[in-house]
């Protein structure tokens, strides 16, 4: 059993934003001061500049700043006219807001299981979902058994790794569905799309990001961004983010108050030029974790899958918003790490199909076995650009200690 090194004890947070702020505190304060001095607090020049910067970073024609990642998806669904009588396919293994927004506009979330290696929605599971739950009507539209028209797919690029967008694009074209990328956790992540590479959020009709403080590009509060190729859709989104207003006090549709705050845009504008550097640091930390698990010989630990995209020559094959491992005895391990002051998190402890608020959808335990298995077995370890190798080694040694003691305590067989 590995012995823990002499530098115990050590506290290892899941995320520490302190060093990031210390390095950028002066330009951030200057940017905030500019906003306060200008008296332009709502959809001012900082928002416009940040939208333009995101267009350049993502190679997207249009960007629309909004108040959060959740509001981004809500505005997209509203702008596409998705509502009562419609259904939208998505994953049950994601943050609540993905399916929550679908339900909020009156549409029906239709779940398809995940790939066990990537934790992203499985293209084969979507095809199975369509075959099992849908039929084609006389106009060629796919409808659920209860009559809802299937309008869109919302794939989630979970933990910083892109979904198989080429396969999803083929499915969306085959069934005439809009492809809405939930890239809330994956800004900057790339996928070998077509004959080139594309960034998360730019491979469907529309995509969106969250800038919640813990994200790879985090604000000092809630903030989000929508990117799309179509100018007409971009105009509709800008209308919907301001109560459906345009011109002022003339409302053609019912929208919402989904505007990106000027101060948050100012902060994000300061941070964006550092995003690539931070992503590289996260990948280096992820590689170090893999090497450390190999060092201690923990063959039962399944580390995040990145090889398929790395091997295809991508720089940002994975941006590691979270470093999620699959382990036996997950809950007991987490309790052990907590005693060692190593913070961890469970993303997510329950599939959305098992959440009480979605009981009306009629799903039951066992319907999505890979989602349920991931909910039982996965654990997020500390990762952020500034994490020290000493802290990572301490975490891995503590995990090795746990499994060593478990093996030592098992009864011997003859």
Give the topology, please.
Elements: H1 18-38, H2 45-58, E1 62-66, H3 69-79, E2 86-90, H4 97-104, E3 108-111, H5 123-133, E4 134-136, E5 142-144, E6 149-154, H6 165-175, E7 178-182, E8 190-191, E9 198-199, E10 206-210, E11 224-228, H7 231-240, H8 262-271, H9 275-296, H10 307-310, E12 323-326, H11 330-339, H12 369-377, E13 378-381, H13 389-409
Parallel strand pairs: 2-3, 2-6, 6-7, 7-10
Antiparallel strand pairs: 1-11, 4-5, 8-9, 10-11, 12-13
Please tell me about this protein's structure.
It is a single chain. This protein has 414 residues and is an alpha/beta fold. The chain folds into two domains: 21-273, Aspartate Aminotransferase, domain 2 (3-Layer(aba) Sandwich); 275-408, Aspartate Aminotransferase, domain 1. Helix content is 39%, strand content 13%. It contains 13 helices and 13 strands. It has helices spanning 18-38, 45-58, 69-79, 97-104, 123-133, 165-175, 231-240, 262-271, 275-296, 307-310, 330-339, 369-377, 389-409; strands at residues 62-66, 86-90, 108-111, 134-136, 142-144, 149-154, 178-182, 190-191, 198-199, 206-210, 224-228, 323-326, 378-381. Strands 1-11-10-7-6-2-3 form a seven-stranded mixed beta sheet, with helices on both faces. A two-stranded antiparallel sheet has the order 4-5. Strands 8-9 form a two-stranded antiparallel ribbon. Helix 2 packs parallel to helix 8 and helix 3 (69-79) runs parallel beside helix 4 (97-104). It is globular, with a radius of gyration of 22 Å.
